Amino acid sequence: MDYNFAEIEARWQAYWKEKDIYRVREDETKPKYYVLDMFPYPSGAGLHVGHPLGYIATDIFSRYRSMKGDNVLHPMGFDAFGLPAEQYAIETGQHPAKTTEENIATYKRQLGKIGFNYDWSREIRTCDPKYYKWTQWIFLQLFKSWYDKRAQRARPIDELVAIFEKEGNRNVDAASHSDLDFSASEWNALSEKEKALRLLDYRLAYLAYSEVNWCPALGTVLANDEVRDGRSERGGHPVIRKKMRQWFLRITAYADRLLYALDSLDWPESLKEMQRNWIGRSEGASVFFDIEGQEEKLEIYTTRPDTIFGATFMVLAPEHPLLEKLTTASQHEKVEAYVDYVKKRSDIERQQEKKVSGVFTGSYALHPFTGKRLPVYISEYVLIAYGTGAIMAVPSDDERDQRFAQKYQLPIIEVVDRSDYPGAKIEDKVGRMINSDFLNGLEVKEAIRVVIDRLEAAGRGKRSVNYRMRDAGFSRQRYWGEPFPIVYYDDVPYPLDESELPLVLPEIDSYLPTEDGRAPLARNREWVELPDGGIRETDTMPGYAGSSWYFIRYMDPHNDERLASEEAIAYWRDVDFYMGGAEHAVGHLMYARFWHKFLYDMGIVPTEEPFRKLINQGMIQGQSKIIYRVNDENKFVSRGLKDRYGTTPIRVNVHFVDHDELDLEQLRNWRSEFKDAEFECEDGKFLVDTEVEKMSKRWHNVVNPDDVIDRYGADAFRMYEMFLGPIEDHKPWDTQGIDGVSKFLRKFWRLYVGDNDEWLVKDEKAATGDLKILHKTIRKVGSDIERLSLNTCVSAFMVCVNELQAAHCHSREVLDPLVRIIAPFAPHIAEELWQRMGGKGSVHRAEWPQYDEQYLIESEFEYPLSVNGKVRTKMLLPLDMPKDEISEKVLENPVIRKWLDGKAPRKVIVVPGRIINIVV
RNA sequence: GCCCGGGUGGCGGAACUGGUAGACGCGCUGGAUUCAAAAUCCAGUUCUGGCAACAGAGUGAGGGUUCGAUUCCCUCCCCGGGUACCA
Questions:
Q1: What is the mean pLDDT of residues A311-328?
Q2: CA–C1' span, A422 to B75, in Å?
Q3: What secondary structure letter does DSSP report for A827?
């Protein structure tokens, strides 16, 4: 009987569920291993064949580790709050909880068919109040903490209050966005409200005003990627920048720790580099410039203080707070016009502009060393959000400053002699200082040190470190997210008592924002307005809130007392291996690391970093199928004929195409536009072109795993996904190719089961050759799994089965270990054969076999013989033959003699067990 | 522009530390089986020449190191991802 995957897979999936074999418990007798997949957002479209790629890899890896004796945690859950469900709710009026629930059911059904080993008793959903109780709890801890830069850790805010009461803030080095100085008596004289507002400057979760993309027509705030060219992507309505009071998380306090810990992580180098760039640490100096006729000083940030004698003008961001004071009456009109011009431009436009523009303010700054007058300009190339929003312009050593100087005819003073460094660009930090007074003759690096010392001594500047990274906006004016456990009294935010958590997301009558532009939750006045006069926060938390700590919850997902028990956390500690898409390189991975470090400071988790090893799985792309429509006609032509007409390419459903030939019948029934169309074939066939691109409904190239599994089975599907190529690479899906692994599984089956379903495996001694094949495979598969090279594992299995088949091997001594090592890849067929073989318990609880070195030792080797590096023939020689004896033997070889043509070889190189090269 | 990947048959890919380039599979070609087809099995399949033995070329292009380079070094081209007037 043939291998009946449908029956086998259903049987064993039911068996595993019934026996609960994937249930994981803490077990001190075994080493722990935590394997994690990035949990999915359950979209309405369901899974396509690209989604499970990483899940299959971790499934194989975790099954392997547990057969090797580890206690493996491999959980799954759902990132269930998010924009698409809310958008759908706005369009249909359906509650997002309901559609989310339905989508999760679809996902679980689809995942179930693939045969994963998740411990579903540990499933979590970020939208479940039992889960987000602890998301809210962590937020409260952030709210109640400040960051002590000296101790390099978060501390309770009460300790900061105690310090303020005793000595003010002068001896505190805290992460803060305020530079206000105050003494103990000044602090103690403040009202309760003033104290509360001032503390916000120090909390790790704080309120501040910031600009958002406000779309008046939609009455809502838009994410950056929902805005195109200053208009909303949906509907094309104008979008303006609007100031709103919002929650922020002080991630910048952790910038250095986030940066330096990267070195210790086993992550792809490219991903670590992205995080480094995102943090964007730079070392330089703050310099204070006097302004002619003004009390106030202008603070600038520069990484090149050494070039200060080359500064010939200053540039401010058009939003700079000092601008009004610096603008003289005569320049007022021009400045205002320029500020207006910049206001209308989106950040993206401003940043992409290649044309230099700017306006003189009328004021002059004074050079701190020479006292020279430096005109102060404004220009859009200086950004208010970076550094201090003001620069000293050094046209000799900065390309943008140079272009600006050229356009406005400002002087350029060369200050760095780079003649010792041919090829150095103007912004490279190399060279010898010239025209720079006391810096003359110094190397750039030395000059930086010297000039900062001078500036500090003169009280005109200081060493300073700057980051590109900014605090994380944590408010969303949306419904489908975690409510903030915050109540305002007299505009001051107070935390809810932890006993009141979770603060459950209330019902509302419509998912739209209110008419006056407040978040949707404001619609439920009963919920918002408390009897004691308190007003609840109506913003909700962003998507990354719930995903920043979910890996901890899996350790103990049903705990109502703590986010996870101390014992569970002490046992599981951190994620050993994390698999997910590269699109989360900076967002999710940065926030999760930040939260983890905070929880470490709180003493809740024992490790500084959450994810020890990380791999990005590549994307499985779709193959779009393209046909050509003749312009202005209801006529389509086969691909070879497209150049005879003016044509437009059109994508058709990938399922209508077999071997590049289109099934016209199916196409005609697909859409009315094809019903009566004319089709011109070539050689009786209608051929299509193929384009590899993202798998998406839009391109009609989506392949659903359910269909593939129905036709070929889950085991074939799993192995084929792995066989496609290296896990990190992008590669196109081609359903045709699955035939290969499907055939392989049938061949594999026939080693065990005969045509009439008879059991072929015998308890006989295996031939040495068969044992060689087996042990070679055990070794290769084991080491390839360790390095996540799963595609080569599959081909190793193919080679093994081909060889065993040719050898007519039916010995249990070989076929028992073979079932075990294939079990992680094809868990169903392995379980079936294991059980038929009379194996104890599940094959997935069996031990991973050891390979036996004795079968891998060879006594002879067929050496390739090469002449001048080109292989000419082969020769079988004993591996223990001494080199000079080999040389002699080789020279007797007729093919080699022919190539030597009677001459003596210049050299004979023997690499034992590898190759022999004769140089003539 | 900068940073990080990557360019190998018709296609997906293999070659782990410099040692037989193209494993494994798809597709294609021919054959067996079949009334026929599907399925299955067998053989061939980098390119060029040759019936073949064999010879020449060949891992994006050019150069270098080496007995030997897909692998190391230099220059350049192309593709993918990230990022940016970041002072």
A1: 91
A2: 17
A3: H
Q: Within 13 Å of residue A640, how many CA atoms lie on the same side as its CB?
A: 10
Sorted by sequence, the CB contacts under 8 Å of residue A697 that are 6+ apart come out as A45
Q: Which of residues 45-104 of A touch strand B (CB under 7 A)?
A: none
Name A residues 273-312 whose Cβ lies under 7 Å from strand B: 273-274, 277-278, 280, 282, 284, 301-304
CB of A807 nearer than 7 A to strand B: no
A696 touches strand B (CB under 7 A): no
Query: How many Cβ atoms sit within 10 Å of the Cβ of residue A171?
Result: 9
If you compute the radius of gyration of chain A from its CA atoms, what whole number of angstroms results?
A: 35
A802 Cβ within 7 A of any nucleic strand B atom: yes
Rounded Cα distance between A628 and A662, Å, is 12
Residues facing residue A616 across a β-bridge: A580
Alpha helices, DSSP H, located in A763-826? 768-786, 790-806, 812-822
Residue A427 has a pLDDT of: 72
User: From the alpha carbon of A741, which nucleotide's C1' atom is closest?
Assistant: B25
ipTM attached to this prediction: 0.93
Please state whether strand B lies within 7 Å of residue A900 at its CB atom.
no
Q: Which nucleotide is nearest to A738 (CA to C1')?
A: B26
- What is the 3-state composition of chain A as percent helix, strand, coil, each rounded to the nearest 5? 40, 20, 40
CA-to-C1' distance for A274 and B78, Å? 24
Angle (deg, nearest 10), helices A738-750 and A827-836: 10
Cβ contacts of A454 within 8 Å, gap of 6 or more: A369, A438
Residue indicated by tokens 């704080």: A206
Cβ of residue A363 near strand B, that is under 7 Å? Answer: no
Phi, psi dihedrals of residue A419, rounded to the nearest 5°? -65, -20
Structure tokens given for A50: 């690209």
Got the DSSP string for A655-704? GGEETTEE-HHHHHHH-HHHHT-EEE-BTTB-B-EEEEE---GGGT----
Q: Which residue has the tokens 């209508």?
A: A656
Nearest to A740 by CA among A818, A797, A822: A797
CB of A224 within 7 Å of some strand B atom: no
pLDDT > 80? residue A855: yes
The number of beta carbons lying within 10 Å of the beta carbon of residue A162 is 11
In this structure, the dihedral spanned by the alpha carbons of residues A730, A733, A738 and A740, taken in order and rounded to 10 degrees, is -50
Distance B30 C1' – A662 CA (angstroms)? 27
Q: What is the rounded distance in angstroms from the CA atom of residue A561 to the CA atom of residue A565?
A: 8
- A389 CB contact with strand B at below 7 Å: yes
Q: How many CB atoms lie within 10 A of CB A422?
A: 6
Better-predicted residue by pLDDT, A306 or A644: A306
Which residues of A in 742-761 have their CB below 7 Å from strand B's atoms? 742-744, 746-747
What confidence tens digit (pLDDT) does each residue in A836-848 have? 999 889 999 999 9
Among residues A548, A672, A667, A471, the alpha carbon closest in space to that of A139 is found at A548
Q: Where are the alpha helices (DSSP H) in A495-539?
A: 525-528
The residue written with tokens 């309405």 in the block is A44
Question: Beta carbon of A875 within 7 Å of strand B?
Answer: no
Question: How buried is A440 (Cβ within 10 angstroms: 0-12 exposed, 13-18 middle, 19+ buried)?
Answer: middle
**A578-621 per-position pLDDT tens digit:** 998 887 878 889 999 999 999 999 999 999 999 999 998 888 88
Task: Give me the CA A268–C1' B82 separation in Å, rounded.
Answer: 13
Give chain A's domains with CATH numbers.
22-138+544-616 (3.40.50.620), 147-202 (no CATH), 282-466 (3.90.740.10), 620-693 (no CATH), 706-855 (1.10.730.10), 860-919 (3.10.20.590)
Distance of CA A454 to the CA centre of its chain: 44
pLDDT band of A347, cuts 50, 70, 90: low
* Residue pair A728/A681 in contact by the 8 Å Cβ criterion: no
